[in-house]
Task: structure prediction
Amino acid sequence: MSETMFYILFALRTERHGYGVMQHVEELTEGRIVLGAGTVYTSLGKLEADGLVTVTSREDRRTNYLITACGTEVLRQEARRLAELSRYAKEIL
Amino acid sequence: MSTKREWFAAFRYVAPADFEDWLEAQAREGWLLEHVGQWSSILMTFQKGEPATYRYVIDAQVSPRPDYLATYQDAGWQHLGRMASAHVWRRRYDDLRPEAFTDAETVRARSQRFVGAVAVAGSVLGLGGLAMLLGSSMADLSAGYANQMLAARCSLGWGSGACSG
Result:
């Protein structure tokens, strides 16, 4: 899973629209990751098509998304992989 | 206000980034793309104004979802319009050049969509041109055939009023 997909899924543990995802990820990573509008829009479409996120509501021109049970499981698996990576990385520090 | 026109600007570049860089260079010289319409890929009009630093982005979306425009606009992008399926966005900047596509996967997907859109538009344009050429040739052939028939009728003495004079 790419870093972009990981952070978008992570952000969608709470219902958010596209720009909300961008703001949350920037805040979470203290400005290290600034997701582009095109990247977020494209990624949300792919995640929705894969059943990892779902549309919860539409307000004005915005669409709110939320992670699904399947998306949560995929995110957990990735978190386990990253934790293992981090454990071994610490050994060489 | 002076304007300049560019023919087939969208067909000069295979990579969307090259087309965007060219638009940005135009804006730096004061030639601003303010509006994009259905036929702008064929004829693009620039308005003369103050030189400005704009980041332009081309994003081909055949059937965008309802939140497409809002996602870009909330992030500060101005929608200039669309030419066929290619949406054109711009955003003014001072220091850090803004990006709409920030990871390798979506950059690649965006490039593929752009190439596809240009290929479809080019094919439609080419087929249209070919149809016009063929239509014109057929009309010439028909006119030539009609003239020959008329000449034959006249030489055989079958002519009516059309042969006189």
Residues 3-91 of chain A form a domain with the Arc Repressor Mutant, subunit A fold (CATH 1.10.10.10).
